[in-house]
Amino acid sequence: MTTPLIEAVDLGKSYGGVVALRDVSTVVRGGEVTCVLGDNGAGKSTLIKILAGVHQHDTGELRIEGESVRFASPREALDRGIATVYQDLAVVPLMSVWRNFVLGSEPTRRYGPLRLLDRNRAREITRKALDDMGIDIRDLEQPVGTLSGGQRQCVAIARAVHYGAKVLILDEPTAALGVKQAGIVLRYVVQARDRGLGVVLITHNPHHAYPVGNRFLLLKRGAMLGAYDKSEIDVSELTRQMSGGAELEALQHELDRVVSP
């Protein structure tokens, strides 16, 4: 079996006296989707910030293609092929679609001693990358803030794929979307997976995770509630564990005792 793109082994992170993450392990492989599920405060954000180089882990080991690493910055993670699309997308709403797409990687032309933005080349890059992913945005000049939430997510995914990401981390990409828009985003998640990327999908919705996921990491209060390959769990059990099925069953039993004559 090939070396995982990312392997987290017993990762732990504390902020002062607060333990945000404790002994969390998972793997991310090329051509697969690893779904990280949990309610608010489960530790999902802390985990992805470690993977993305925003924070460093206190305990455990993080391996990138078999090499033990400790990222000092998001730039180091990006240089190793780990691209993160956060929920707020970090776009400039008043800038055009193409300008946002090439932001930070602008093509330039030399005019004497000066290097100026090559606008035509930037538009060509954006159009081709979107077309390659099957994303239909007719007017690249429109401000990116005028796109729907699903369209903005798709542009961000296409950008990461175009600029050579090996791992794509998506932070709650469907959280604020309706059913149709969420379906569109998940379709492009599958496209990224089928192109050979390793995808980390952060979500609190098992019905979004299960159709696209290959493995599932469930977190609760910073610890692992469970880790499963798709063959080991069905969507109903995933939902039950996500919703605190055991606690709900115990509560129902208690309520039945209270109301029974």
List the helices and strands and how they pair.
Blueprint: E1 6-15, E2 18-28, E3 33-37, H1 44-51, E4 59-64, E5 67-69, H2 74-79, E6 82-85, H3 97-101, E7 108-111, E8 114-117, H4 119-132, H5 149-162, E9 167-171, H6 179-194, E10 198-203, H7 206-212, E11 215-220, E12 223-229, H8 235-242, H9 245-259
Parallel strand pairs: 3-10, 3-11, 6-9, 9-10
Antiparallel strand pairs: 1-2, 1-4, 4-5, 7-8, 11-12
Helix pairs in contact: 5-6
Q: Which key terms come to mind for this protein?
A:
36% helix, Rossmann fold, six-stranded mixed β-sheet, four-stranded antiparallel β-sheet, 9 helices, alpha/beta, 12 strands, 261 residues
